[in-house]
Amino acid sequence: MTIMIIGLLIFLGSHSVRIFAENWRQQQIAKLGETNWKIAYSVVSLVGLAVAIYGYGQMRLDPFMVWYPPMGLRHAVALLMVPAFIMLVAAYVPGNAIKAKLGHPMMLAVKIWAFAHLLVNGRLGDIIFFAAFLVWAILAFKTAKKRDRLSPPAPVNTSKMATIATVLLGLVAYAVFAFYLHMLLIGVPVFG
Q1: How many whole angstroms separate alpha carbon 154 and alpha carbon 148?
Q2: How far apart are CA 129 and CA 88, in angstroms?
Q3: How far apart are CA 90 and CA 85, in angstroms?
Q4: Do 147 and 154 contact (CB within 8 A), yes or no?
Q5: How many CB atoms lie within 10 A of CB 21?
Q6: What is the pTM of this model?
Q7: Rounded Cα distance, 70 and 86, in Å
Q8: What is the pLDDT of residues 66-98, one digit of tens each?
Q9: How do residues 97-156 score in pLDDT, each as one tens digit?
Q10: DSSP conformation class of 157
Q11: Contact status, residue 156 vs residue 95, Cβ threshold 8 Å
């Protein structure tokens, strides 16, 4: 579990710079240049994510159960993940009304994903893993909304087609992940 926690600290730590050290971040961008900053940030993030995922896999080999979630909660998770995938896609499709309305749909998607997975995972390592992401998403969303209040983003022209495409892509991504990739990558079937 230690490896997973180290990975989480690296990954979520790098993603928390805007929460806790925005001035330092701006200094580094000025010093290194935006491109070099993004490269360094990406490398640190990817290393942290890889270590966290490896550690998560290792933690699952020797689990410590805190509680045994009822099987019925799996249905709630499957349902909660539908809007999470749509919001995740909304973060990247330009001109969609979902992003315009929510402002930071990726952080909301992470909140839903983490909360949903806390409902159905009773191992200590799972609780630490998903709770860490939930706490990060709550803090990151709060910080982003504060930045928006201080410097409101420019209004975005939205289109129905972009919004429809966002929803459809989110549903397709959900279906592919739920019916195929979750079992392949995580080793746990979503349905069944």
Answers
A1: 10
A2: 19
A3: 8
A4: no
A5: 12
A6: 0.92
A7: 26
A8: 999 998 899 999 999 999 999 999 999 999 999
A9: 999 999 999 999 999 999 999 999 999 999 999 999 999 999 999 999 999 998 888 888
A10: -
A11: yes
